[in-house]
Amino acid sequence: MGSGTDVAELATALLDARQRSMPIVDGSRVVGIVTRRDIVATVARDDATVADDVRHRLEVYGGKGRWRVACRDGVVTIGDQFDDEADRHVATVIAESVPGVVRAQAIAVHEEDDR
Please, what is the average pLDDT of the chain? Predict the structure, then answer.
């Protein structure tokens, strides 16, 4: 399977082939391996754990307290208190790299939104 393969497609291939693991390739080079256990661990993460993980990674990037993170059914919404489109893009990419995130979206949040 290629490095951009969807997890659902990968899981189906593992089950159809009755395999416990599958190499991940980039061209002709093996870049990793995914196991059934990896897939289960990814999809079995609850929303609170996913949100905490996203929040932690964003704090490393943009500082503590900057981001508001909510997660429902693996869909993450990130509120950014600064109106910076580039940072929101980076926050979305960071969030999408977290296991259990199905999709992420960063939006600008202004102080008047708290009322």
Answer: 87
